Structures are given as C-alpha cells and as structure tokens.
Amino acid sequence: MQSQNPFFDDLARMAGGALGAISGLKTEVENLVRQQFERFMAGANMVPREEFDVVRDMATKARQDQESLAQRIADLEEKLAALTGQQSGGQE
Fold first, then answer.
1. pTM for the whole thing?
2. In angstroms, rounded to a whole number, what is the distance separating the alpha carbons of residues 92 and 85?
3. Interval 57-80: pLDDT, tens
4. d(CA 41, CA 43)
5. Three-state SS at 48
C-alpha cells in the first residue's frame, strides 16, 4: 500500500527548488570570479596569451634575421680581407 503524503511531495518540491537555486548561484559565483579575475589582469598590465605568442614569434624571427645578417657581414668581411690582402700582396 502506497500512501500519498503531502509532506514528502512538498519536501521533494523544496529539494528540487533548492537544487535549482544552488545551480543558479554556482553560475553567478563563477561569473563574478571571472569578472574579478579579468579586472585584476587588466589592472596588472598583463597581456593576453595570444598577444604574447605573437610578440614572441616576432622576436624569434627578428633574432633569426639578426643572426643571418651577422653571418652575412662576417662572410663579407672575410671576402674584403681576402681582396685587400691580394691587392696589397700584388702591389709589393
């Protein structure tokens, strides 16, 4: 025999409502924490990861270009020294 007890029905409805409220509260707290964190990051002059990655890639490319140009200058200096040595050796 199953009896209809309004107390248990009310308790189930109240528990369901409480779970819904807790779920909504969780979402609201997450949003507030996210907003506070974004404010902190903006105030701390931090850059987003995407911007950091772009600047790092630019710096890496600039470093590679600088090393390539330094090698090219060294090669040209060697050639110049060899030409200068040949010219002074031939004029003696």
1. 0.47
2. 11
3. 999 999 999 999 999 999 999 999
4. 5
5. coil
Token pair in block for residue 39: 């404010």
pLDDT band at 1 (very low <50, low <70, confident <90, very high): very low
Q: Hey, what amino acid is at 11?
A: L
9: which 2 tokens?
């029905």
Side chain identity at 37, as an amino acid letter? F
Q: How far is CA 39 from the centre of its chain?
A: 17
Q: Whole-angstrom Cα distance, residue 26 to residue 7? A: 28
Measured in whole angstroms, the distance separating CA 5 from the mean position of its chain's CA atoms is 58
- The residue type of 52 is F
What amino acid is encoded at 89 in this protein?
G
DSSP H helices, the chain, are 6-43, 49-90
Measured between alpha carbons, how far is 87 from 81 in angstroms, rounded to an integer? Answer: 10
